[in-house]
Fold this sequence. Notes:
Layout: E1 2-4, H1 15-19, E2 25-27, E3 32-34, H2 44-48, E4 54-56, H3 66-75, E5 79-80, H4 91-94
Antiparallel strand pairs: 1-4, 2-3, 2-5
Bound molecules: iron/sulfur cluster (SF4) and FE3-S4 cluster.
The site of iron/sulfur cluster has 13 residues, from helix 2.
Amino acid sequence: TYVVTESCIRCKYTDCVDVCPVDCFREGPNFLVIDPEECIDCTLCVAECPVEAIYAEDDVPADQHQFIALNAELSRQWKPIVERKDALPDASEWAKVKDKLGELQR
Ligand code: SF4
Ligand code: F3S
Protein backbone atom coordinates (compact mmCIF):
# COMPACT_ATOMS: atom_id res chain seq x y z
CA THR A 1 0.00 0.00 0.00
CA TYR A 2 0.95 3.65 -0.30
CA VAL A 3 1.12 6.04 2.64
CA VAL A 4 0.63 9.80 3.03
CA THR A 5 3.29 11.28 5.30
CA GLU A 6 3.94 14.44 7.25
CA SER A 7 4.57 16.96 4.50
CA CYS A 8 0.86 16.86 3.53
CA ILE A 9 -0.16 18.32 6.90
CA ARG A 10 -1.58 21.85 6.57
CA CYS A 11 -0.94 21.77 2.80
CA LYS A 12 -3.49 19.28 1.43
CA TYR A 13 -2.90 20.08 -2.23
CA THR A 14 -5.24 17.21 -3.27
CA ASP A 15 -3.61 16.72 -6.71
CA CYS A 16 -3.22 13.08 -5.64
CA VAL A 17 -6.97 12.55 -5.48
CA ASP A 18 -7.68 13.11 -9.16
CA VAL A 19 -5.43 10.31 -10.38
CA CYS A 20 -6.42 7.54 -7.96
CA PRO A 21 -8.31 4.88 -9.94
CA VAL A 22 -9.93 3.39 -6.86
CA ASP A 23 -10.78 6.58 -4.90
CA CYS A 24 -8.99 5.44 -1.78
CA PHE A 25 -8.05 8.85 -0.36
CA ARG A 26 -9.80 9.90 2.84
CA GLU A 27 -10.00 13.52 3.99
CA GLY A 28 -9.47 15.11 7.36
CA PRO A 29 -9.42 18.82 8.26
CA ASN A 30 -5.78 19.40 7.26
CA PHE A 31 -4.42 16.07 5.99
CA LEU A 32 -5.33 13.21 3.68
CA VAL A 33 -4.70 9.52 4.20
CA ILE A 34 -4.81 6.46 1.94
CA ASP A 35 -7.03 3.54 2.90
CA PRO A 36 -4.62 0.59 2.94
CA GLU A 37 -7.52 -1.82 2.33
CA GLU A 38 -8.34 -0.13 -0.98
CA CYS A 39 -5.01 1.02 -2.47
CA ILE A 40 -3.98 -1.13 -5.45
CA ASP A 41 -0.35 0.07 -5.56
CA CYS A 42 -0.71 1.73 -8.96
CA THR A 43 1.91 4.41 -7.97
CA LEU A 44 0.11 7.18 -9.91
CA CYS A 45 -0.40 9.49 -6.93
CA VAL A 46 3.29 9.67 -5.97
CA ALA A 47 4.36 12.00 -8.77
CA GLU A 48 1.32 14.25 -8.37
CA CYS A 49 2.08 15.47 -4.86
CA PRO A 50 3.93 18.82 -4.94
CA VAL A 51 5.45 18.16 -1.51
CA GLU A 52 6.37 14.49 -2.09
CA ALA A 53 4.27 13.28 0.80
CA ILE A 54 3.39 9.87 -0.65
CA TYR A 55 5.60 6.79 -0.31
CA ALA A 56 5.28 3.08 -0.85
CA GLU A 57 4.88 1.48 2.57
CA ASP A 58 8.31 -0.17 2.29
CA ASP A 59 9.96 3.16 1.45
CA VAL A 60 8.51 5.35 4.20
CA PRO A 61 11.47 7.12 5.87
CA ALA A 62 12.36 5.81 9.33
CA ASP A 63 11.32 9.01 11.08
CA GLN A 64 7.84 8.78 9.49
CA HIS A 65 6.98 5.15 10.24
CA GLN A 66 4.14 6.15 12.53
CA PHE A 67 2.28 7.41 9.47
CA ILE A 68 1.71 3.83 8.29
CA ALA A 69 -0.51 3.09 11.28
CA LEU A 70 -1.95 6.61 11.19
CA ASN A 71 -3.17 6.20 7.58
CA ALA A 72 -4.85 2.92 8.55
CA GLU A 73 -6.45 4.40 11.66
CA LEU A 74 -7.69 7.66 10.15
CA SER A 75 -8.94 6.01 6.95
CA ARG A 76 -11.51 4.21 9.08
CA GLN A 77 -12.74 7.52 10.51
CA TRP A 78 -12.58 9.94 7.61
CA LYS A 79 -14.77 10.21 4.49
CA PRO A 80 -13.65 9.67 0.89
CA ILE A 81 -12.46 12.62 -1.19
CA VAL A 82 -12.80 11.97 -4.91
CA GLU A 83 -12.17 15.35 -6.55
CA ARG A 84 -9.34 17.80 -6.35
CA LYS A 85 -10.04 21.04 -4.46
CA ASP A 86 -8.08 24.15 -3.53
CA ALA A 87 -5.10 23.63 -1.25
CA LEU A 88 -5.32 25.00 2.27
CA PRO A 89 -4.52 28.68 2.87
CA ASP A 90 -0.78 29.16 3.44
CA ALA A 91 -0.04 25.73 1.93
CA SER A 92 3.11 27.06 0.30
CA GLU A 93 4.39 28.34 3.65
CA TRP A 94 3.60 25.09 5.46
CA ALA A 95 5.24 23.10 2.67
CA LYS A 96 8.64 24.24 3.99
CA VAL A 97 7.96 23.29 7.62
CA LYS A 98 9.24 20.01 9.13
CA ASP A 99 7.97 18.15 12.21
CA LYS A 100 4.33 19.08 11.61
CA LEU A 101 2.70 16.08 13.27
CA GLY A 102 1.63 18.28 16.19
CA GLU A 103 -0.40 20.34 13.68
CA LEU A 104 -2.52 17.37 12.62
CA GLN A 105 -6.21 17.89 13.24
CA ARG A 106 -8.49 14.91 13.61
FE1 SF4 B 1 -4.58 5.40 -5.33
FE2 SF4 B 1 -2.69 4.26 -6.79
FE3 SF4 B 1 -2.02 6.10 -4.99
FE4 SF4 B 1 -2.86 3.70 -4.18
S1 SF4 B 1 -0.98 4.12 -5.32
S2 SF4 B 1 -3.51 5.69 -3.38
S3 SF4 B 1 -4.37 3.20 -5.78
S4 SF4 B 1 -3.27 6.44 -6.83
FE1 F3S C 1 -1.43 15.86 0.51
FE2 F3S C 1 0.17 15.83 -1.53
FE3 F3S C 1 -2.20 14.82 -1.80
S1 F3S C 1 -0.08 17.48 -0.08
S2 F3S C 1 -3.43 16.05 -0.40
S3 F3S C 1 -0.62 14.06 -0.45
S4 F3S C 1 -1.14 16.03 -3.30
